[in-house]
Amino acid sequence: MSSISSSEYSACITTVSNDETARKLARSIVESRLAACVNIIPGVRSIYEWQSTIHEDNELILMIKTRQEFVPQLIEFVKKNHPYDVPELIELPINSGNQDYLKWIDGIVKKQSST
């Protein structure tokens, strides 16, 4: 199994309240070439405090695979296109992985810098 060790790649996570928003945001992120792939993971229950009240809501997770150098642009994109006042977007470094998959991410995300 071929793998490389690198923190050049990131998996970023955000949450949304419904499938329509998830699909629209995921598609726009990929179309903008800020990520090579966005997985939509349904069935998440979030418990959080917002404006001094504890909330419990059903949400979907978007797992966004990109290059680390594009994370600041991704954060700004999500903030502008997300319906939440303060959308979650956290970055998890990908420390190792299938070299072919990481090269595939390069082929999609790096194209943005040349256009």
Briefly, what is this?
This protein has about 120 residues and is of the alpha+beta class. About 35% of the residues lie in helices and about 45% in strands.
Task: Kindly list the characteristics that best describe this protein.
Ion_tolerance_CutA, Divalent-cation tolerance protein CutA, 115 residues, N-reg_PII/ATP_PRibTrfase_C, 4 helices, copper ion binding, N-reg_PII-like_a/b, Alpha-Beta Plaits, four-stranded antiparallel sheet
Describe the fold and architecture.
GO terms for molecular function: copper ion binding. Belongs to the CutA family. One of its GO terms (biological process) is response to metal ion. Pfam families: CutA1 (PF03091). InterPro entries: Ion_tolerance_CutA, N-reg_PII-like_a/b, N-reg_PII/ATP_PRibTrfase_C. With 115 residues, this protein is an alpha+beta fold. It has a single domain, classed as 2-Layer Sandwich (Alpha-Beta Plaits). Helix content is 34%, strand content 45%. It has four helices and four strands. The chain has helices at residues 19-31, 71-81, 99-109, 111-114; strands at residues 3-16, 37-50, 53-67, 90-98. A four-stranded antiparallel beta sheet has the order 2-3-1-4. Strand 2 (37-50) and strand 3 form a beta hairpin. The N and C termini lie far apart (34 Å). The model is unreliable at 1-5 (pLDDT under 50).
Break the fold down into its secondary structure elements and pairings.
Elements: E1 3-16, H1 19-31, E2 37-50, E3 53-67, H2 71-81, E4 90-98, H3 99-109, H4 111-114
Antiparallel strand pairs: 1-3, 1-4, 2-3
